[in-house]
Amino acid sequence: MEHHKNKLDLIKEKIKNIDKPLILELGVKEGNSTKMFLEICDKNGGNLISVDILNYSQVSNNPKWKFIHSSDDNFNYINKFLEKKIDVLFIDSLHEPNHIRKIFYNYFNFVKINGLIFIDDVIWLPYVKGGYRE
Q1: How would you classify residue 60: left for phi > 0, otherwise alpha for psi between -120 and 50, otherwise beta?
Q2: Residue 6 neighbours by CB under 8 Å, 6+ apart
Q3: Which of 43, 68, 104, 123 is buried most, with the most CB atoms less than 10 Å from its CB?
Q4: What value, to the nearest 5°, has the Cα angle with vertex 131 and ends 71 and 73?
């Protein structure tokens, strides 16, 4: 848990001064990152959109939070909720290289210039050992 806390502290430090942030979170689970993002949204007048294949809608009742119960690669559905460019993209869903690549390339198009992208728990070894191929 301490390692997880440190990652969230690092992310919080990087985004704490963004005015009116729009944050897209892919993967909710226990809601640790969700609650941290909502803290930033409350302080800075922002909004959080979270997507998860499991129903974690009970994690918060904060009006700054929109929970989408869907797979994060259901692009035709989820992209409709992204009416403006996002400031922060947090990818913490299925930690499989092909999935991450697919969702990264879709949601990258919605990130503002100078926006921030965080990918949590990615398996980096295949990329280091001779290059990753599909």
Answers
A1: beta
A2: none
A3: 68
A4: 10
Contact 119, 91 (CB under 8 A): yes
The answer to whether 33 and 60 have CB atoms below 8 angstroms apart is no
Q: Read off φ and ψ for residue 18, nearest 5 degrees.
A: -75, 125
Three-class secondary structure of residue 110 per DSSP: helix
Query: What's the token pair of residue 63?
Result: 């009006």
CATH architecture of 2-128: 3-Layer(aba) Sandwich (3.40)
AA letter at 72? D
Q: What is the pLDDT of residue 124?
A: 57
